[in-house]
Amino acid sequence: TTTTTTTTSSPPKATSKAASSAGASSSGASDVALQKKNLEIEGLKTEVADLKLTVDGLEKERDFYFGKLREIEILCQDEQGQVACADLLRILYETEEGFEAPAEDAQDEAEPEQY
User: Fold this and answer.
1) Average pLDDT of each block of 10 consecutive residues along the chain (115 residues)?
2) Model confidence, pTM
């Protein structure tokens, strides 16, 4: 008795090529999507940093004006209602150290404000 063994093999190379090209396509697409997400993350990080700077500036400005109001409150309490307008105006028009008022435009000076 003779036994004949027949093996049928599917072309493994064709299957593996198809699988690897499908994997490369999805890998390429996921790389592009990943790059887009990374760019979006970087943009959001920049936006967050800008917003933090804005918040810091606003907090500083808030503290500045709160300090003015506190000075006026103390002045009013000390004087028992007899507050001089000159003292109030001095407090209101004080500037913070290092602050420079913006220059007036020539056009603003030429046209007086009307109310």
Assistant:
1) 52 50 67 94 97 96 91 78 77 76 54 54
2) 0.50
